[in-house]
Structure formats: C-alpha cells, structure tokens
C-alpha cells in the first residue's frame, strides 16, 4: 500500500506532525520586509520591479513549502538560521498547511495579474496587502489568520496552536487590561493630539539644521 508523504516533522512527545513556530515567524518577518520595501518603491518611485520579483519569490516559496517540503523553503531556512539558538516552539503542521494554501492562492493571483499580465488594479492592491497583513500579524504577534480559519473547514480540532489560542481558557491576571492602563493610553493619545495642534505649522516643514538654530539664537542675544 502506498504511503502518503507526511507534511511536517515527527517530534517525540507530539502525536501529530509539527513545525517550528519560531522559524515560521522569522520567515514571515523576512517576507513582510521584502514586500514592505517593494511597496515603498511603488508608492514613492512608481517602480514595480522589486514588487514583481518579490511576488515571484513569494509564489516559489509557497510552492516549495506545500509540494516539496517546508524544510526546503528558502524563507524558512533563513528563518531557521536566524533563530537557530532559540528553543523550538512546535505547532501543528495541519493548520499551517491550510494557512499556506491560502498564501499560495493569493500569491498565484497576484503573480498572474502583476507579472504575467503586467496589469494594475485595485485587485492587486487588495491581494498584496492582504498577504502583508497576514505576514505582519504572524511575525509580530504570532497570530496566524489562516490557522484560525482552519476550524471552519475541518471538523477535527487544530492541535498545538501558537500561544495555545486553540484552547478555551480563562485569561490570567497579567493578560487583563485595567482602567489605569486605559487612562494612560488616553493620556498618550491626548499628548499626541495636543502636540499636533501646537506645532501644526511646523510639522510639514523640513527640519532646520540644529547648528543654524543655535547660531541664530546666539546672534539674537548679541
């Protein structure tokens, strides 16, 4: 009987194939950074070259993850090197595969529209920024939106989710937000608003050399 190729790694103590969440988050950060700078060039220089190359890399990376093996993915290998001295945090491979399938679909759409057809539309913007939002939340907060959608399509419950978000549990005291904390946040926002109001005339101006300001102040005293 033909054996199905396993997706993920077998680790002692885990009853399902798993992946290292630390290297996944590192890889997401790498891809997000590339996409971010690609859009900076588009917005300020109207240059699409890096965005097209980045999308091609994005698509190739997800093809390797899903159809060959995650351990051969270029971004995951870079991520593994970066976090090589950190203790692995294992997560279920099944929900990650589902999340990466969503990534593959999105990157395929944008590859066809932007690279193959060389076209530009609001669809490009929406798809690219959806990918960037997914990558940002994965790398910054450890929140995998694709993993959250997993339970909507599969009956079996996702196991070994990052931060135990798949488990229903009560929040600990350190996770709660108090009235005092909210007050401080409101105070910070008030400070920012007050600063904008007081210095609104100079916020849009190019900063003046500090030495010129000092020289001008000294001359005014003489």
Textual characterization of the structure:
With 222 residues, the chain is mainly α. It has 2 domains: 18-169, no CATH class; 175-221. It contains 9 helices and 2 strands, in the order βαααβαααααα. It has helices spanning 21-45, 49-67, 74-82, 93-116, 122-141, 145-153, 179-198, 200-203, 210-221; strands at 18-20, 90-92. The chain has a two-stranded antiparallel ribbon with strand order 1-2. The mean pLDDT is 87.
Number of beta strands:
2
- Rounded mean pLDDT score: 87
Portion in beta strands: under 5%
Using the CA coordinates, give the radius of gyration: 24 Å
Order of helices and strands: EHHHEHHHHHH
The main sheet orders its strands as 1-2
Judging from the principal axes of the Cα atoms, what is the shape? extended
Q: Into which percent range does the helicity of residues fall?
A: 55-70%
What count of helical segments does DSSP give? 9
End-to-end separation: 95 Å
Count of structural domains: 2
By helix and strand content, what is the structural category?
mainly alpha
Seen as an oligomer or otherwise, the chain set is: single chain
In short:
The protein has 222 residues and is mainly α. 64% of the residues lie in helices and 3% in strands.
């Amino acid at each position: 009987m033909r054996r199905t190729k396993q997706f993920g790694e077998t680790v002692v103590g885990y009853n399902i194939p798993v992946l290292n969440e630390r290297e996944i988050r590192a890889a997401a950060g790498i891809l997000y950074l590339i996409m971010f700078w690609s859009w900076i060039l588009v917005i300020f220089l109207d240059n699409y070259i890096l965005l097209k190359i980045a999308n091609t890399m994005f698509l190739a990376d997800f093809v390797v993850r899903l159809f060959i093996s995650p351990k051969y993915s270029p971004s995951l290998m870079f991520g593994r090197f970066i976090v090589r001295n950190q203790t692995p945090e294992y997560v279920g491979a099944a929900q990650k595969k589902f999340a990466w399938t969503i990534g593959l679909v999105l990157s395929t759409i944008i590859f066809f529209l932007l690279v193959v057809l060389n076209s530009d539309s609001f669809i490009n913007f929406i798809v690219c920024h959806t990918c960037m939002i997914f990558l940002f939340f994965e790398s910054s907060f450890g929140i995998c939106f694709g993993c959250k959608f997993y339970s909507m399509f599969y009956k079996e419950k996702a196991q070994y989710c990052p931060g135990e978000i798949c488990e229903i549990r009560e929040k600990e005291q350190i996770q709660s937000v108090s009235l005092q904390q909210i007050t401080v946040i409101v105070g910070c926002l008030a400070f920012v608003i007050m600063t904008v109001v007081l210095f609104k005339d100079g916020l849009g101006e190019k900063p003046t050399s500090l030495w010129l300001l000092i020289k001008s102040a000294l001359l005014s005293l003489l």
